[in-house]
Amino acid sequence: MVRALQLHRARCRAKIPPKYADLTLGQLLQRPCPPEQAVALNKLANWGKLVTNPGFLNLTVIGDKGTGKTEMLSALLGSLVHIGVDCKYTTCNDMLAKCKATWKSKDMPESAVVAEYVQPKVLVFDEISGPDREGLESLSTREIYLIETMIDERYQQQKKTVLAGNIKTMEALIALVGERVASRAQEGGVLIVCNWPSHRKWARIEEFDEAVKKSGVQLC
Ligand SMILES: Nc1ncnc2c1ncn2[C@@H]1O[C@H](COP(=O)(O)OP(=O)(O)OP(=O)(O)O)[C@@H](O)[C@H]1O
Ligand SMILES: [Mg+2]
């Protein structure tokens, strides 16, 4: 009971997305998936096993939308939290929004927000993409500077960082976040490209109708 509560608190601190809050890699490894995703999951799990190894610092997970990147990375963090690793999940937009919120406030300097993302031993920096989704000039110079500052500080402190997003190629990632971030990600890093079909599908109408029959909710 105490252990369950500790785990719950650690997951909350790590900000794992609620959709995947209780997930671990073990659960995903048992679920049917395309063969390429099974390879990716094993690579991800192996990277996780090296969490205390000072090498293999970074992991980059790119690929098509709906392939399960966020789910797999949430599960990775879930498994790392289980063994007591200090982790944090953030989206790129969330980090930038928190930084920008300091511009109009005197309560907290921007550097303190950046420091929050430098502190954890493992950081997942997910959903890197621009408004045009092509990764071309869609982040401002200031936004790239903030990402660079955070990634460089983590790199200097030899902390493990996962960069992830709906980006098809390393070239597109470089175009988006710049050479400095990409080259740090590359050093001793592992690359996973998710290029199997999206798992996101429309609901099947038979299942929808069946659920409505069982719902019991009456609307006026
Ligand atoms: N092997 C699988 N079998 C069934 N569903 C899966 C599988 N892998 C992932 N999913 C589901 O696919 C959906 C999309 O996953 P997720 O949000 O992680 O994708 P993503 O790659 O991060 O997408 P995006 O690039 O758009 O952010 C989720 O509902 C997830 O549970
Ligand atoms: Mg995602």
What does this structure look like?
The protein is α/β, with parallel strands linked by helices and 220 residues long. The chain has one domain: Rossmann fold (3-Layer(aba) Sandwich), CATH 3.40.50.300. 50% of the residues lie in helices and 12% in strands. The chain has helices at residues 2-14, 25-29, 35-49, 69-82, 92-101, 110-118, 141-156, 170-177, 179-186, 205-215; strands spanning 58-63, 87-91, 122-126, 160-165, 190-194. It has a five-stranded parallel sheet with strand order 2-3-4-1-5, sandwiched between helices. Helix 7 links the parallel strand 3 (122-126) and strand 4 (160-165). Helix 3 packs parallel to helix 4. It is globular. 32% of the residues are buried. The model has no long low-confidence stretch (mean pLDDT 94). The structure holds adenosine-5'-triphosphate and magnesium ion (MG). Magnesium ion (MG) binds at residues 69-70, 126-127.
Question: What's a concise summary of this model?
Answer:
The protein has ten helices and five strands, in the order αααβαβααβαβααβα. It is an alpha/beta fold.
Q: How large is the count of helical segments? A: 10
CATH architecture: 3-Layer(aba) Sandwich
Strand content: 5-15%
Please tell me how large the radius of gyration is.
Answer: 19 Å
Kindly provide the name of the CATH class.
Alpha Beta
Structural class: alpha/beta
What is the CATH superfamily? P-loop containing nucleotide triphosphate hydrolases
- Order of helices and strands, N to C? HHHEHEHHEHEHHEH
Low-confidence stretches: none
* Mean pLDDT across residues: 94
User: Percentage of helical residues?
Assistant: 40-55%
- Distinct small-molecule ligands in the complex: adenosine-5'-triphosphate, magnesium ion
The major β-sheet equals: 5 strands, parallel
Identify the quaternary structure here: single chain
**Strand runs, count:** 5
As laid out across the biggest beta sheet, the strand order is: 2-3-4-1-5
- What is the domain tally? 1
Query: What is the 3D shape?
Result: globular
End-to-end separation in angstroms reads: 43 Å
